Amino acid sequence: MPKARQRELDLSEFPAGTITEYTTLVCLACIFDIFTKQLNLAPRTAFSEIKRHTPTIAELTSRGAMRPYFDSEEKHPHCPYCGKAKRWLARFDTYCIEGGKTTDAARRALQKKLPKAEDQFVVSEKKSDSGAVFFDWLDTLGRSLDLNDETWLIDASRVYLERREPKTNWDEVFDELRAVRRSSRLSEGWERDGARLFLAPSLYSEALLIQYLVSRSHAHGGLTLEGRLTLMDLTRRLRYSGYLEQLGISERDPGEVFEKLVNHLAATHEWSRVRTGSGSDRVEVAKRSSKKSSKSRKKKAAPPEPEVITTEPVKLHYLIDRRDFLEKVKSVYASYAG
Ligand SMILES: [Zn+2]
Questions:
Q1: Which of 113, 139, 173, 338 has the highest local Cβ count within 10 Å?
Q2: How would residue 62 be classed by pLDDT, with cut points 50, 70 and 90?
Q3: What angle do CA 77, 97, 24 make, to 5 degrees?
Q4: C-alpha 71 to ligand 1 mean position (Å)
C-alpha cells in the first residue's frame, strides 16, 4: 500500500500562495456511532452510507471541528471524543485553490490526472471575493508563523513577495538571507546585495503593512521590520515613503488611512496583475492629479472615489482527497464483518 507521503499531489505548477491546504481527521468509531445510534441505521447500511460520505466544506476547513471531525497536530493522534487511535482515524486532505488566470490551466490539468473511481476525489466550488480571500490568506499566514521568533518578519516578507511576484524563484532570493531593507535607490522591484534584500519603497511599505496586519492582535501595535509600530507610526512611515501618495490616499486620520490601505489590498486577489504601488485605474486617476496641490485636486474632482469597499469575485475550487478515508472505512468494515 502506498504511503501517505508518496501520494501527495504535485502542486508545483501553482503559484505560491494560491492554494490553502487543510487536514481534518475523522473518527470512524464516532461516525459509525452517529449513523447507527442517532440515525438508527443497521451496521451494514451505515458502512455503505459512510463510504459515500463527504464532509461539508465548512466541516473540512473550519478551525473548530465538531464530532466526529477533529484537528490534531500530534504524530499519534487520538479521537478527542472517544479516545480511539490510529486504525479508527481517517484523514481528509482539502486543497482550496483560488480560481483565476494564474491557476485555471494548472487546476484543470491536475483534475484530469486524479483517479476517478469511487469518488476518491471530490471537487466542490464556492463563490467568494478578493476581500475574503485576502483575510483568509492573512489568517493562514499568521497561523503559520511563530511571532515569538524574529525571523518571522523575513518569512512574512517572503510570503508577501511570493504572492506579489509568483513567477520569481524566491527560494533562490531568500537563500541565506539575513535582512530585508528599504531601498533608497530603487523606484520599483528589488535587488539582493550580499545577505540583504532591498525592496523598492512601495514593496517595502506593503511588506510592513502585511506584518502589521499579521501581528497587531499579537502585540500592542504591530511588529514590523521597523520595530513595534502603532497605527499612527505605521501611517506616518507609509506617508513618508510616498506610498500613500502613490495610492492617492490623502486622508490624515490614521484610522481612515488604514481602512483605505486594507481596501487597496483586498481589491484584487491577483496582486501580480497590479503594478507595484498602484491598485487600479481609479488609483491611477488620483495619482496623476496628485501632482497638483492636494487642494486643487479636491476641487478639480476627478471622478469622485467611491467609499464602498471594492472587491472582485473569486471562485474557490475545493479538491477533497478521500483516499485515506475510503481505505480506512474498508479496513474497519472488514474487521467488523470478519
Ligand atoms: Zn471517536
A1: 173
A2: confident
A3: 15
A4: 12
